User: Fold this.
Amino acid sequence: MTLSTQELLDGILEGEHRALARAITKIENRQDGYRDIVSGLYEHTGDADVIGITGSPGAGKSTLVDKVAKAYRDRGLTVGIVAIDPSSPYTGGAVLGDRIRMASNVGDMDVFFRSMSARGSLGGLSTATADAVKALDAFGKDKVIIETVGAGQNEIDIVQAADTVVVLVPPGSGDNVQMLKAGILEIADVFAVNKADMDGADRTVQELEEMVHMDDGHVSVAAGHHGMGVDTEVDMPEKGNESEETIEPWETPVLETVATTGDGVDEFLDTLQAHADWLDDTGQIQAKRRQRTAEEIRTLLREDAGALVEGEIDEHGGVDALAERVLDGETDPYTIADEVLDPVAACLEREN
Amino acid sequence: MSQSQEERSIRCLVAKVGLDGHDRGAHVIARAFRDAGFEVIYSGLHKAPDEIVQAAVQEDVDVIGISILSGAHNTLVPKVIEGLKEYDAFEDTLILVGGVVPDEDKAHLKELGVAEVFGPGTSMEQTIEFVRENAPER
Ligand code: B12
Ligand SMILES: Nc1nc2c(ncn2[C@@H]2O[C@H](COP(=O)(O)OP(=O)(O)O)[C@@H](O)[C@H]2O)c(=O)[nH]1
Ligand SMILES: [Mg+2]
Assistant:
């Protein structure tokens, strides 16, 4: 049974789980029609709060996500989750182990949990994740959570599909905290020291707090999250002449949680809400979404342009043949790049 | 514009249902599937049929492999199949059963819609080959 794009779209908007699941598969596989699906869903997105949770493997992310989802359900909210696990670089296969922790929401279809593998070509993963989040958003989920392993730049890109980014830090990870300084600090809106039932939690909290305060001086309010050259001016909706009024900056809180028991989860949710409110009140949500959308457009164009160029390379006999010509001393990579791209550039040339 | 950037991968749910605590076989199979390049979601132990259905639907798996060594296959497998039907997920999902199933029960399971039953000692190659050949076209 193959569902058409239109059937999938209708199904999603009517709340059919099967259609949502199949649409995410198409998005993940970049199967024919996935673009039409995402395009069709777009106008129905924007209502969900998107929360990203990252942190080293074993930090307790999945366990916490399970408890958080349950707590949202208790508050009458629906939840979508995308959990990303690494895949084997050799076979492309993966055992996606996050779902196993989803013990508190059994049989509750209003928690939609989807495991995703970080497949070979990491380039597309952040796009696929962002698109899967949109499907969950359009489906009508109130909260969408992204869980990802906190390693490397790709992960940072993925988690930035979220409005609020949580970095989970297990106790006693003094080295970890040092490591965090490289890159993770800028993206964290909330720190949670999970496994607070274990020794060393207090010290880790203290270290993180020191780090946050040290950084106070130069966290830019607007873009905050690595600026990507997008203008960092702050939008102040409906503030008119008083635009000199300064925005109360968001100070990254450091919380303690015990995901296994659920201790600290209520406070955690309140903090997420506080951040969502802050984003709304300051207009930061617009700035953030504009920046994110700009990046999406760029990524998409880069991919499409890349695909066009691949086609041109094939026209020229394939990249191996081209490389061979360079090795034979016939030509050089720059000349080849010009040869391949000149016709494209000629098409694009405008009269100025 | 629609570039052909398709990347497909066979998705499998390896499921343990009921009180059955024998999980070695399920682990072995999960690992073998991973090494064959499949994406495997392992359910964990002691799941209710409902949970398996929930996972299969949400994860949109191509294959559900139910591992049962407890002897309860005749009650648990039909429940999973019923649940799949409820979500329109029965027809295009390959359903396998593995573990200890007496020969006389196999025919009945196949009538219900199980594609194949794999008992102790089945070779991994055979199992993987079967999945590759029979995973639904979508
Ligand atoms: C090891 C074992 C145990 C271990 C389990 C350890 C563990 N964590 O798994 C322990 C000691 C804990 C145990 C306990 C019990 N066991 Co026991 N156990 C076995 C034994 C000897 C081997 C099972 C095994 O691990 N085999 C190795 C694995 C790799 O093989 P496998 O599981 O069969 O998997 C292969 C295939 O079946 C297939 N497969 C399996 N799953 C899947 C899934 C998919 C998708 C696919 C494609 C294929 C597939 O592929 C695998 C590789 O070839 C079997 C006897 C036997 N020879 O099967 C009895 C057996 C399963 N146990 C049995 C019993 C009765 C029990 C107990 C009830 C005993 C008791 N009275 O306490 C308890 C129950 C425990 C519980 N909570 O469920 C009976 C079940 C009888 C029945 N079905 O009618 C058996 C058959 C022994 C017997 N002949 O009586 N057991
Ligand atoms: N003691 C303790 N263990 C925890 C806590 N949270 C998670 N764990 C355990 O840590 C292990 C890894 O958890 P998991 O959620 O899979 O981590 P993930 O890899 O970050 O998703 C599991 O065995 C959990 O039971 C906690 O707050 N306290
Ligand atoms: Mg996890």
User: Anything to note?
Assistant: Residues A 61-62, 98, 147 surround magnesium ion (ligand 3) (CB under 6 Å). Strands of chain B lie at 11-16, 39-42, 63-68, 94-99, 116-118.
